[in-house]
Q: What sequence folds into this?
């Protein structure tokens, strides 16, 4: 009895391997990825808070030390103040001295590109499917679009991404050079942005995760103390301790942690500072993308827990990483990056299981050089297309800040106490150095009560006339759209000395006491 063998499938029905994308097309896709931060950054205008950062940088350079009391407001001169971003401020002040208004753009462009390079590295080292990796990195880039600004938080996003990258390698049993470079990153981080504590939280999570996994294990035969003998856990503990000690290498040492506690106990800014309010999911595409990445990461964790049809426990590291990222991102819009970076790590390991060689792409040194040249040329092209001339940059500043009023005050040589609104405070610190502002963006210095009281004066709330800060002011620079700009026209204590389409300047009349 003979067996009948199945006929061979026709050659034309055999699955064909996918055609590889040409290298130039892949390079163009990567160039498009790095175009996202450049398009967000290269535009006229200066961030609201950057002005007081520039003034602090100038003060540090001029005095050769960091301030211990506030030299810029009449309220803060009697109390201690920690310039927790002093190194960032020196950097942007130096760039401003060399490049003028181009300096802040140079800073934001370089740091934003570094953030995207770190994000792509995090993804590409764990996901070899080129198109999937680029698509995931593009989603992260678009989510971060609202944060590509002239702010020190770019350092936090960069160093957090590098910390997570190194920890994932360590948890997988790989020790890289990045791992031992982290303490040096934390020395810089603690001197440029107060959110270095986010990185310490990541390290703490990596230390706690193996302990939690052992405690939550459902296997009765499991060794609950095995984590104590795991060299990866011991290395993580050493790394966490060294990075914590590295944060103390700053001019204020342990006092820096007092600023963390100040911000943690100050609820006011989370209600009335735009970037600190919770996402509203209305007009911002970045917020919806963040929500999508969060949902996709949660779904990926669910699939991972039931792989191959056999339930297995979550890694507490992944669960708590996503939960913590969501906690910060859903609390404040400026922290949407937490979910974006966490999603980059989680979703990079849940892509296609089998990656054909045609979909793999390695960035060799020649390709990196070509990409770097392409990014530089793209930045130049965007600058030319948007007419980023010195004149256009000055116009961008004048559109948002009282440049005419500030110039008039400097020409007249006015000195003393300035009553100003919250939004313009940082700019006036920089542009009217002989006047001490009443309030500015340093919310931990001024406190909730004072900041909200000043805001109520500007809207002409009952009792505005008797406000002690207004009564003590020598000069008032008022936005013409605020109610106080009209009310002061009838206030005999002040006279109007300047007005343009944007602002009015009032000075105290002679014979009127400047004391409250």
A:
């Amino acid at each position: 009895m003979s067996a009948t063998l199945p006929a061979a499938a026709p050659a034309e029905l055999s699955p064909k391997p996918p055609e590889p994308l040409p290298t130039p097309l892949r390079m163009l896709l990567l160039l498009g990825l790095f175009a996202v931060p450049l398009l967000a950054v290269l535009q006229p205008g200066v961030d609201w808070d950057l002005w007081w950062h520039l003034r602090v940088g100038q003060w540090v350079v001029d005095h050769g030390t960091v301030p211990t009391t506030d030299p810029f407001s009449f309220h803060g001169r009697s109390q201690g103040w920690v310039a927790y971003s002093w190194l960032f401020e020196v950097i942007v002040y130096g760039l401003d001295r060399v490049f003028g208004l181009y300096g802040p753009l140079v800073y934001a462009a370089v740091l934003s590109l570094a953030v995207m390079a770190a994000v792509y590295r995090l993804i590409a080292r764990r996901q070899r499917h080129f198109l999937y990796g680029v698509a995931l990195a593009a989603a992260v880039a678009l989510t971060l679009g609202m944060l590509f600004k002239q702010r020190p938080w770019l350092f936090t996003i960069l160093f957090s991404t590098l910390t997570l990258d190194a920890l994932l390698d360590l948890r997988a049993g790989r020790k890289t050079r990045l791992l031992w470079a982290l303490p040096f990153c934390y020395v810089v981080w603690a001197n440029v942005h107060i959110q270095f504590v986010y990185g310490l939280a990541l390290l703490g999570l990596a230390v706690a995760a193996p302990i939690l996994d052992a405690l939550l294990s459902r296997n009765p035969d499991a060794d609950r103390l095995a984590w104590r003998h795991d060299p990866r856990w011991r290395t993580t503990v050493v790394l966490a301790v060294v990075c914590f000690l590295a944060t103390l290498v700053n001019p204020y040492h342990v006092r820096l942690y007092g600023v963390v506690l100040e911000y943690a106990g100050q609820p006011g800014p989370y209600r009335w500072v735009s970037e600190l309010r919770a996402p509203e999911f209305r007009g911002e595409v970045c917020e919806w993308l963040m929500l999508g990445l969060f949902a996709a990461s949660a779904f990926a964790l669910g699939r991972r827990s039931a792989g191959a049809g056999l339930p297995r426990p979550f890694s507490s590291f992944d669960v708590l990483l996503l939960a913590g990222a969501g906690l910060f991102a859903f609390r404040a819009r400026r922290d949407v990056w937490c979910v974006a970076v966490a999603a980059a790590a989680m979703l990079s390991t849940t892509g296609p299981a089998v990656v054909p060689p045609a979909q793999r792409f390695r960035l060799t040194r020649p390709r990196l050089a070509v990409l770097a040249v392409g990014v530089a040329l793209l930045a130049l092209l965007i600058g030319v297309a948007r007419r980023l001339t010195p004149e256009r940059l000055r116009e961008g500043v004048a559109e948002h800040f009282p440049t005419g009023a500030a110039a008039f005050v400097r020409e007249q040589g006015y000195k003393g106490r300035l009553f100003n609104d919250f939004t313009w405070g940082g700019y006036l610190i920089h542009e009217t150095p002989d006047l001490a502002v009443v309030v500015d963006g340093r919310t931990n210095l001024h406190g909730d009560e004072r900041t909200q009281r000043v805001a109520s004066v500007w809207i002409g709330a009952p009792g505005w006339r008797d406000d002690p800060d207004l009564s003590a002011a020598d000069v008032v620079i008022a936005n013409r759209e605020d109610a106080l700009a009209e009310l002061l026209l009838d206030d005999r204590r002040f006279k109007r000395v300047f007005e343009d389409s944007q602002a009015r300047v009032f000075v105290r009349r002679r014979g009127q006491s400047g004391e409250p």
Q: What stands out?
A: Residues 402-508 form one domain. Residues 37 and 435 are 36 Å apart (CA to CA). Residues 102-124 form the longest helix (23 residues).
